Amino acid sequence: MSSNIVIKLSKKKIILLFIAGVLFVIFGILGALRPEDFVSTIFRNPEIIRISGILGVCFFGIGIIFIARKLFDNKPGLIIDSYGITNNTNATSMGLIDWEDITGIETKQVMSTKFLILHTNNPEKYINRAKNIISKQAMNMSYKTYGSPISITSNSLKINFNDLEKMITSEFEKRTKPQ
């Protein structure tokens, strides 16, 4: 059996995500408090701008809390071993994903962010591992949208997406090929 593959969290990437989140919160606050300053030919209605600002503060405010927690997380971001994939890459990280539960891997992209969807024959097992209600809701939404609650991105890892995709796909194929 091959040795463990350990991919660390990238503090540099996490700091950049944190800064971006803080900027979105600042713009959300400004949009909520002074929507008339953001009226343009595209966004004409100050109330829509105000509501968007409030929603932005809520969404990105929660996001920067999770990102800040990752800044102080010293556990590896991802471990691939003979048992499966231990995922600690994001807020919905659920620990070990057993090889026997993974039925397929699919690449998705939302805007410029690529991520891997790990399809599983036991989605409830992983949804029930969610550490809090927000993570559980995010996993349920992912399950409804993509057919699986499990996703892995390289956004917080010391690896680029293409290398991550090749590595996980290769390890999955090794473990699912008939002997």
Compact summary:
This protein is α+β, with helices and mostly antiparallel strands and 179 residues long.
What is the terminal separation in angstroms? 13 Å
Q: In percent, how much strand structure appears in the residues?
A: 15-25%
| Structural classification | alpha+beta
State the helical fraction.
40-55%
Give the strand order, joined by hyphens, for the main sheet.
1-2-3-4
Number of strands: 7
SSE run? EHHEEEEEHHEH
Arithmetic mean pLDDT: 89
Shape category: elongated
* Poorly predicted sequence stretches spanning 5 or more consecutive residues: none
The domain count comes to 2
* Number of H- or I-type helical stretches: 5
Q: Biggest sheet: strands, sense, closure?
A: 4 strands, antiparallel
Radius of gyration: 19 Å
